[in-house]
Design brief:
The protein is mainly alpha-helical. It has 3 domains: about 110 residues, no CATH class; about 180 residues, no CATH class; about 210 residues, no CATH class. The strands form 7 sheets. The protein has a 3-stranded antiparallel β-sheet. It has a two-stranded antiparallel ribbon with strand order 1-4. Helix 1 packs antiparallel against helix 12 and helix 4 runs antiparallel to helix 8. The two termini are about 25 Å apart.
Amino acid sequence: MSLFGSLYVGASGLQTGQNALNTTAHNLSNVDTKGYTRQQTLLTDKNYNLLSVNPKAAANQQTGLGVTYADVRQVRDSFLDQKYRKESGRSAFYEVSYNTLGEVETLLGELDGESFSESMNDLWEAVQELAKQPASSVTQGLLIQRASQFVEQAGNVYSALSKYQDNLNNQIKGEVDQINQYADRLFALNNEIIKIETGGIERANDLRDERNQILDALGGYGNISYSEDWNGSVNVKYEGHTLVNATQVFKVGLDQDSDTGFYTPFWQGDAKKIPQENGTFRYDISNCKVFDLTREISTACNTDIGSLKGMLVARGDHRADYTDLQDVDAYNETISSSILMNVEAEFDNLVHNIVTKINEVLENAAEKEGAPYLRNEDGTIILLFQRISSDTYDENGKLIREDLSAGKENTLFTISNLVVNPDLVKEPTKLGFVKNDKKEDYAIAQELQAVFETKAYRLNPNVTTKSNLIDYYSNIVSQVANTGAVFKSIYENEDTTVSSTDNARQQIVGVSDEEELSNMIKFQNAYNASSRYINVIDQLLEHIINTLGA
């Protein structure tokens, strides 16, 4: 090799050493930058130059042409990245469930300073007092007063549960909007990365950092999978459906129920547009929903991933009532997995049974004794509770709700369709409880007591143990508390897994001051060695030039 060739060898060392030092300095300057991935300079030797070619020789004479840097790569572990994103999504799912159960427990236990249990116990005490003096205007007035308070408080609790459903519904819309924003940004980053890396000269590492942060965040919203193309773009699937590829973004749409206002996420590009008479159109989302909520929620099936799914499951698809407990299959398919719908149905069932059983006692007593006992002037039976609306058929003539067990119109009570008899509120003594023979009706008072004491009620179709109405409510609260404890344990375990996985990831992607300072010394020494080598070559050239000149 000529002396001038040796200069190029030295220059390659200087250039490579400088680039390596620049990478090290970049790492040190971003030691506290969130989402930054440590970069590493990969060095390789240049091709050798053959000095002679001898077929008979075992090895031909050759000389090295110096060093160059092959790449400046990010130091990441793809396995840990995938694990972190999946486990963070699973943690988010159980966090939503745990927080929802905590909120429901609070709503059931205390609302505006008065717990529902107190109002129910007050009603029970009023019935007990009535049993002592059925004909007393005081005990009758107390019964009406406590019944009104009971209905009001039940309505408050149910309304609060419904409002929490609405709150989750708004959060669902916000998360879908955020997912679409992430998808748009991923698509833009893909294009920017392709432009920079197409020439094979440099890597868009800072853009890759941003993309990895978005994938981290997106993993918390649902089950994602992804793969990188040869050109540097990443293809992302959300819940098994393509969200982003090199050429397109597949947006998540929201279908809003006209009755409840609840949103259902669907794949907008897959939905069939159905024209409407007013010139607009609606989407047929029957075959393009993002989530199949009929599938069992389990870790084994990876169906317990993502805060968005957690909110959808917790919210449910409608406002439940006691009728949702009558069909076991329907209950297990749609109600049992939803925190709010399950509590709404069980709570409404409690109120429904108290109301209907009390009315049945009054009705049966009136029919047994005969007119005018417990009857209005028009001959109708005086009932403690009434429905706000008696309409049970839709515009097509189809029955909306039907109590198959009783088959009586006065059993079609729900919390949202319930009121204490206005006539009794004005005049509590209309009850009387004095039979046609002028004797106090102690029997009816005892039957009213039995309404609360008889163990005839199951919490839901999957519970075999029967309880009385006094214990029913405490069973609901206990169920919520126990389920909350289970979800809390799962969430804490998942959170620990996420933290440990992220710590393991940070050991790889994070910048170590000691390691980078060590690299700085190493590359600085390499730079100095190349500089000294060039000085030697320079002295030789100077000596030769001076000698020839002489």
